[in-house]
Design goal:
The chain is built from 8 helices and 17 strands. By secondary structure, the chain is of the alpha+beta class. The protein folds into 2 domains: about 100 residues, no CATH class; about 190 residues, Rossmann fold (3-Layer(aba) Sandwich), CATH 3.40.50. The strands form 3 sheets. It has a 6-stranded mixed beta sheet, covered by helices on one side. A 5-stranded mixed β-barrel has the order 7-8-15-11-10, surrounded by 4 helices. Strands 12-14-13 form a 3-stranded antiparallel beta sheet. β5 and β6 form a beta hairpin. It is globular, with a radius of gyration of 20 Å.
Length: about 300
């Protein structure tokens, strides 16, 4: 990737012989939005393979095919917020154009394979990922994981960028000092925590999916999901589901979900509403992955 927009969240590629496959540039996009209706947030042109988005108080973005992102920040916008949508929404649309399904998930490498954790906002995906890091495991993403499947029904997980977003409460649970990290945005009690050398930037074979939920239960509970539940899980935890439909990708997604449901195990993992259970969840996942091997953290 080559970018005119400063992107401190990403790693720098030292190999100058690698050709960038995505370009991010500043551009005047007023010509694309002059005919928009009041309050319009996006326009999709399937014939030109482009989508123009408006994120109020942040920027206008234009994504063309699978290789070009243009951005026109709004006056007075916070560069950090502009980057949040570049790294999330815009790059996810690039994934879609490349046949990669963007999932709202955290990802961890266990024994050379990727396992992803999906769940609603607040379920504890990031905190669980941080607990894996503290246990010595490397992460592939905190927010979005791209998935693909080949002709042999082998799934691949593609990494995001090497940074976690953790609430103050999560830092307190994990004995991490918030003064060591920058806030994601002003007046927003969430902090950017770099992965450092605990990040895997290469694609990995995907070996399992865990859906994390909070529930009014006394202790952690895990169960395998049935085929139809697996398909529903993928559709529910998809990033940019509405945009996918507008891009006429609904059948493509359904085909992917049906194949993925038969390719790897899926589990529902419920945790109690209260208390800090992340280390125990790590143990539960490791034990399931290794089928009964006792793991002590």
């Amino acid at each position: 990737m080559i970018s005119e927009v400063e992107m401190p969240e990403l790693w720098s590629e030292e190999d100058s012989h690698i050709e960038p496959d995505v370009s991010i540039e500043y551009a005047d996009l007023r010509g694309f939005i002059q005919s928009w209706e009041p309050g319009q947030k996006r326009h999709i042109d399937l014939t030109r393979n482009e989508i123009v988005l408006h994120i109020p108080e942040a920027a206008y973005y234009r994504i063309v095919g699978s290789s070009l992102i243009q951005v026109m920040p709004e006056k007075g916008s916070d560069p950090r917020e502009v980057r949040i949508f570049l790294l999330g929404v815009c790059l996810s649309i690039v994934m879609i154009h490349r046949g990669i399904v963007p999932m709202h998930a955290s990802g961890v490498m266990i024994d050379g394979k990727a396992y992803i954790i999906v769940g609603d906002c607040g379920a504890g995906k990031s905190t669980l990922g941080a607990a894996f890091r503290q246990a010595g495991y490397k992460l592939i993403s905190d927010d979005i994981v791209g998935l693909s499947i080949d002709e042999s029904n082998i799934l691949t997980a593609y990494p995001g960028y090497p940074q976690q977003k953790l609430w103050q409460q999560s830092l307190d649970y994990l004995n991490m000092e918030s003064a060591n990290y920058d806030q994601i945005l002003d007046n927003y009690n969430k902090f950017a925590v770099p992965f450092g050398d605990q990040f895997i930037k290469d694609p990995l074979p995907l070996a399992g999916i865990f859906e994390l939920e909070k529930a009014d239960i006394p202790q952690i509970a895990m169960r395998p999901l049935k085929s139809l539940e697996r398909v529903q899980l993928i559709r529910y935890h998809l990033f940019l589901g509405k945009v996918l439909n507008e891009l006429s990708k609904e059948q493509w997604l359904l085909n992917f979900a049906a194949k993925a449901a038969l390719a790897i195990p899926f589990y529902q993992l419920k945790r109690p509403l209260n208390g800090f259970t992340a280390p125990d969840l790590v143990n539960q996942i490791l034990n399931k992955v290794r089928e009964g091997e006792v793991v002590h953290l």
